[in-house]
Amino acid sequence: MSPRKQARARGAGSGRSGSGKRIRLGLPKGNLQATTAKLFDLAGYNLRFPERSYYPEIDDPEVECILIRAQEMARYVEQGVLDAGITGIDWVLENGARVKELADLAAPWPNYRTVRWLLAVKEGSPIESVSDLRGKRVATEVVNLTRAYLRRHGVSAEIEFSYGATEVKPPLLADAIVDVSETGSSIRANQLYVLDTVLESTPRFIANKESAADPWKRRKLDRMLLMLNGAIAAAGRVGLMMNVPKRSLPRVLEVLPALGTPTISALADDEWIAVNTVVAEHVVRELLPTLVERGARGIVEYPLSKIVG
């Protein structure tokens, strides 16, 4: 049974389909799945994936989840089978889906970073530019994106769909490829040379246009996004608390990178004040010794799960 028929059958048997008080949310199956589960966990949702089930369980009775391949997500959202879903902007464009984008969910986690669709050829290939692809064969999973890219460059080439292992096809099975990469390691491992970047893509939270226009559904989606974006904003950041002598405050604030303005509070001892701030985690190793040198004491580093507002 197709995902669309499964979703309809599940809704018909839930006893809630007539109420309208439910969001049907598509979660990406495959590479994005584990990171999406992490994101929802950090956002405060208990999301569980029963074995062999395409229906993840979530601790919100007003949300029904279904696992869908990212490549198909935008199509089902456009059709209204799903109210909303998470997929890359690449697949929205590849499907030509008319959906409402509610948020860019780019985050510093695997598969949620920016990925690039790269036009590449085998090292040593006589093809040195896009114009050299005239009449050549290009293998890719994103046929429509590639066709649009070549059209913008005034190039006519044979474009064929690749079912996988695209990076191994040049030069025997294809003259060039358009393949996706997050780190470029696969491109380098297969001795490929990058001619150009066709598209940069990040995960997006998309909604069906009618669902986004429905007041109850839009409020529900916006509240969920507030928590998801709060978790993303906290990624790679930590909180710092410290006590600082009043006379040393200007020198401490001078080196203190902050998300907004640090919070400064009075202490029982009039000569000291408390400073609370948020910084990027990667700067802490160098920052803490500098803060001590400038007079800060009792420095406490603590993790963050969400930053909202």
Your description of this structure?
The structure is a single chain. The protein has 309 residues and is of the alpha/beta class. The strands form four sheets. The chain has a five-stranded mixed β-sheet with strand order 4-1-5-12-6, with helices on both faces. Strands 9-8-10-7-11 form a five-stranded mixed β-sheet. It is globular. Helix 3 crosses helix 4. It contains ten helices and 16 strands. It folds into three domains: 3-111 and 203-234, Periplasmic binding protein-like II (D-Maltodextrin-Binding Protein, domain 2), CATH 3.40.190.10; 115-201, 3-Layer(aba) Sandwich (D-Maltodextrin-Binding Protein, domain 2); 237-303, Alpha-Beta Plaits (2-Layer Sandwich), CATH 3.30.70.120. Residues 7-18 have low confidence and may be disordered. The chain has helices at residues 3-13, 33-42, 70-79, 89-95, 143-152, 185-189, 209-213, 215-234, 249-254, 284-293, and strands at 23-29, 47-48, 57-58, 63-69, 84-88, 100-104, 115-122, 137-140, 158-161, 176-181, 192-201, 203-207, 237-245, 263-266, 272-280, 297-303. The longest helix is centred in the last third of the chain and has 20 residues, at 215-234. Helix content is 30%, strand content 30%.
